[in-house]
Amino acid sequence: MAAAFGGHGPFSLLTSSCSASFLFKAYSKNWGFDSIKIMSESCNLDGINVLIAEDSPETLLVLKKALETRGATVNSAEDGQLALVRGLTAQVDVMIMDIQLPRLSGLDVVTRLRKEGVNTPIIALTGHEEVEHRNKCLDAGCNEYFIKPVDTNHLCRRIKALAAVE
Asked: Which residues touch 90 (CB under 8 Å, ≥6 apart)?
């Protein structure tokens, strides 16, 4: 699995009665290691358009592959300025917003999108576990809050639920 994403160990296989998950680390020159959990359990995202605002190429690749494999159409933005422009102009059902983006923070992007009347569901993606940080994201207008490493199966279920609300 790690080799499929251009890397190699360390990784571990965790199994349960009906699914398997892989945990591996992707190295980024700018940000160190990001852990991403890939689960094999399926979740159909056919017809759902997702914008991922993420500056880590490795994290973006993993999320994009996980969502596209399940049928989603994925667009991306590598910084906050681009995320703001695409959030205002693109036809998307759900946005995934890294909170620590360059040029304009994800939190600022969410605040500006909400001020402009954009009601698209937004999922905050961050490495911060503090309750205060979560509350800031939710207060700014995020609908969900995910902490890295991301369980992509759970993320897909939330994307599906949020897109259905829209």
From this structure: 49, 51, 75
Cβ–Cβ under 8 Å, residues 35 and 25: yes
User: Parallel, antiparallel, or unpaired for β 20-28 and 11-15?
Assistant: antiparallel
DSSP letter for 68, please: H
Largest CA distance in the chain: 46
Band (165; pLDDT cuts 50, 70, 90): low
Residue that has been written with the tokens 């999922």 in this structure: 123
User: What is the strand order of the sheet 122-126 is part of?
Assistant: 73-77, 49-53, 94-98, 122-126, 144-147
pTM of the model: 0.76
Q: What dihedral do alpha carbons 93, 96, 101, 104 form, nearest 10°?
A: 30
pLDDT in tens, 118-156: 999 999 999 988 999 999 999 999 999 999 989 999 999
